[in-house]
Structure to design on (476 residues):
């Protein structure tokens, strides 16, 4: 349910922000130094990573010969990768990247 | 629809899990059911054909099989409804081992009923105690009544892809029965039953494809029952799964 | 897994048992989710380029001006919207009072997502 709200906000923001094309300056101009965006996207990434991990595990169990236990590990691994890459990206656009 | 076609080309599965299709020519009649077709084949063309039926009037569910790839009761399926250009395909129900021809082994189906705790467990009241007073219009009783007419025909189970993809999945019929008992205030197996239907073999493996609800010959809604179980299990998990009150499943 | 060898002798359903609206809802939800999950690492890597400076991120964004990526963007917005709306349908089935399989939501989700993704494309390319 939380995901629904985050996705709806993200979708809305993207449609609005992408008007007339998008440059790095436009993105970073809005996100750099913003604690609000950091929190929003930080939580969004966490939820998405968990959600995707569960979904991928289900697909592996049901559509591949993988047994449930290794499929669970693969799902967790995918969630970990998404979490690491996602939080790095959030960090990059809200704090560490050059303005 | 029939351009004067007086014969049906009926393709029937013969054998076990391995086997072959055998084609029969069956005279077409008005008001003919698929059960009539199978019976004609066995009585007039090939007495070695194995198939099941009993009441032949849509009450027992014994005649369930795959007609043109879809699980149905043959006694309640008119040929005119399912016959495309005079061709019929009869196969055993999916998701259950084939015993012979159109007969499947339903042992696994009923084992899962047991595994889902689909059995009423009575409380301490004995024969000398007053009869339990259950209001028929209480929300819980209405939930139970909505699913109680299941006669275990296996059509929903045969229609479910998750049963195919996850051999341990309890399936729509077993979970539907568990839900009726979760809503039965006289039953006392609450916490154990919830534990049995939670998790990957239980309600959470359901992906709401809805084939069960679409195909149930009694218009039951296993999808709704499983949704109820998901709600109840979630609530119990939040409160501590051994909480008997949460196991009542008041929607 | 008990009974596993037994089920290998069982028949499986084919396309004739599928293809009804509820099943299509499931299929669209699963495929869109899979595509989104596969896309995310690329998305996060791209945004991570900001760590190397604005020029690095701009370079990648210029790459994504190529037509194949533009089509990809449309597809992504469609996938996100349809996965979101399909997810809301499931939440309603699970938590709201039972009103059937809400098949209208399946059609509606696809139609609305198509509209949303087209609006996105029109706005982004203008």
């Amino acid at each position: 349910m939380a995901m629904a709200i985050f996705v709806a906000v993200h979708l809305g923001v993207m449609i609005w922000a992408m008007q007339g094309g998008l440059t790095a300056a436009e993105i970073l101009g809005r996100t750099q130094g913003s604690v609000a965006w950091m929190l929003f996207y930080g939580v969004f990434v966490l939820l998405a990573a968990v959600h995707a991990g569960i979904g991928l595990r289900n697909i592996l169990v049901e559509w591949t010969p993988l047994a449930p236990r290794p499929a669970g590990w693969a799902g967790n691994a995918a969630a970990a990768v998404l979490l690491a890459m996602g939080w790095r990206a959030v960090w990059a656009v809200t704090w560490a990247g050059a303005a | 629809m029939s351009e004067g076609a007086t014969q049906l080309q009926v393709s029937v599965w013969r054998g076990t899990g391995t086997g072959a299709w055998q084609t029969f020519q069956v005279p077409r009649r008005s008001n003919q059911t698929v059960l009539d077709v199978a019976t004609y084949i066995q009585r007039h063309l090939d007495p070695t054909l194995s198939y099941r039926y009993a009441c032949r009037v849509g009450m027992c569910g014994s005649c369930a099989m795959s007609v043109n790839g879809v699980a149905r009761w043959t006694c309640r399926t008119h040929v005119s409804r399912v016959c495309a250009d005079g061709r019929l395909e009869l196969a055993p129900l999916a998701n259950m081992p084939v015993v012979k021809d159109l007969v499947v082994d339903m042992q696994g189906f009923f084992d899962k009923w047991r595994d889902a705790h689909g059995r009423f467990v009575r409380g301490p009241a004995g024969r000398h105690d007053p009869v339990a007073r259950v209001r028929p219009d209480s929300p819980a009783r209405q939930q139970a009544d909505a699913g109680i007419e299941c006669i275990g025909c296996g059509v929903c189970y045969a229609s479910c892809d998750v049963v195919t993809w996850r051999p341990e999945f309890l399936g729509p019929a077993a979970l539907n029965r568990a839900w009726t008992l979760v809503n039965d205030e006289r039953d006392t197996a609450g916490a154990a039953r919830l534990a049995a239907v939670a998790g990957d073999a239980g309600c959470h493996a359901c992906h709401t494809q809805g084939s069960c609800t679409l195909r149930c010959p009694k218009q039951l809604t296993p999808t709704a029952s499983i949704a109820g179980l998901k709600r109840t299990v979630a609530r119990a998990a939040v409160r501590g799964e051994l909480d008997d009150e949460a196991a009542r499943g008041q929607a | 897994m008990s009974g596993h060898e037994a089920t290998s002798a069982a028949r499986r359903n084919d396309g004739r048992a599928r293809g009804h609206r509820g099943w299509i809802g499931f299929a669209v939800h699963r495929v869109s989710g899979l595509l989104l999950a596969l896309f995310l690492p690329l998305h996060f890597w791209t945004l991570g380029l900001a760590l190397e400076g604005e020029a690095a991120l701009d370079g990648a964004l210029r790459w994504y001006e190529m037509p194949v990526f533009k089509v990809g963007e449309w597809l992504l917005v469609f996938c996100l919207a349809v996965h979101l709306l399909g997810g809301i349908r499931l939440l309603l089935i699970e938590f709201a009072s039972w009103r059937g399989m809400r098949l209208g939501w399946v059609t509606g989700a696809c139609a609305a997502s198509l509209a949303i993704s087209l609006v996105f494309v029109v706005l982004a390319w203008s």
